[in-house]
């Protein structure tokens, strides 16, 4: 017993020794199996594409197999390998369906390895993987992700492109057996014919090579067709969205606790899902993007009930093997998230908040803003600040249409600081500031030249949601409307206004000061360089014009290795990156009031500021 105790103690203090003596931890098995599965899949693909080993010890046994088995086994090996490569990602995420498919494919890969490549080692690797999968089957219990039939189209396009590229490798891999010297166009034509099961213009000496290439190309075409048909006709599991009951519950929580977080009202985006605490006194809204369960802002509701909602969030992430992450939570929210879940937090940037009582255009610091506003007012512009419920239906429809047409991009942007609609009947408390030029000839939107839309932040605050302007309007429309909103705020009993979010604001501010170190200066230089494509520095300088106080915002994540994936998912959610294929303009549905989305946290239109 003493010896056993010493061994166990040594295992606990030396993880590598533990892996040697006791094997990997159960929670590490899926990632290990995924890597091994990808490796086996790659071996199967190589076995299907390139010529068999003629000096294998199993070669004499394989020679007694029927001659047609060689080409068939090559196609089977190729197909199995490609599918295993695709399944590796699902196995890493503990998906049950990926496990079931791998259990079926690994024996098929083993048979193909033996029949075509005559590799006993390949057979042993496949069978060892199969044994490991069956032994640890309890680790693969994650539910499927939301899905739609649009994925069938993207699958068809991706598989088609991959099949053509792999097909060219297969056709060219037997160059010594080719008759003549076929051109690239002939080879591509041969691949396209082969995907549909027909013989192309490329010919080989010996029927075995011709059949091998033909079977392999046909298997690629069959895989493309079968996977596309499966994705097109399988039952849809659409992404969860807010129901009317969920929205009513969230509005009730915001009415009691909405003053705590300026991003609270953005939880009412209808393309988000929600989990509530067991008591129903708190909630976390989220969207799943590329396997990342992405929440934004702080939980909604009573702080005492936040842990219950966070626990439900984490349980949902675990059930689907999603990567949990939070974008833009406050310092208090970050402390609760890290305390309750063991996650880490990293400062992402700062939110600009202007206290209405302290705002004034007087003084040297506000000279540039003051001069710009005066110049625009002398040019004949006037402003109006109203609640959305005070606009007539005709004017509201004109504002919606202008906001859509002035968007400037084909895709809507916004997630963490965007409501995604204007003028909904349930959003009457939203504030809207508009700029008009009455001495101009009316255009398609009348005399409307610019729009700012704010959402409620409790009873005494608003948070900036949307900034749009006519491109032909004079520069400075955004400054004009922000000043107008701040000056009109007292009559609406508004005491604080949240403006844009400035990413990496502290690094930009500290890096330009005297005495900044070389690392900080280099980091600031990189941010300034990236500002050519993303509004990082310009957004910070725009916000700083209004002398705000800065409130830090954080990203919460599980492991540092997840940050690139979380960042990519956040860019997708905000609309900077799209993996969907855009429809032609004439096929796009005209937007409804609920569809008119705002700019994202870092992409509000300040280009003319």
- Count of alpha/pi helices: 20
- pLDDT < 50 stretches: 17-22, 53-69, 581-609
For the terminal residues, how far apart are their CA atoms? 76 Å
Structural class: alpha+beta
Rg over C-alpha atoms, rounded to the nearest angstrom: 30 Å
Instruction: Note the main sheet.
Output: 12 strands, mixed
Shape: elongated
Q: Please report the total strand number as a whole number.
A: 12
Overall pLDDT: 78
Strand content: 5-15%
Helix content: 40-55%
Description:
There is one protein chain. The chain has helices at 2-13, 15-22, 29-49, 59-62, 69-92, 96-117, 120-135, 150-173, 184-195, 207-233, 244-257, 306-320, 331-341, 367-378, 393-405, 477-488, 505-511, 518-530, 537-544, 563-574; strands at residues 273-276, 282-289, 292-296, 300-301, 323-329, 344-355, 381-387, 431-437, 448-456, 461-469, 496-503, 549-557. The longest helix is centred in the middle third of the chain and has 27 residues, at 207-233. By secondary structure, it is an alpha+beta fold. The model is unreliable at 17-22, 53-69 and 581-609 (pLDDT under 50). 47% of the residues lie in helices and 14% in strands. Strands 1, 2, 3, 4, 5, 6, 7, 8, 9, 10, 11 and 12 form a 12-stranded mixed β-sheet that branches.
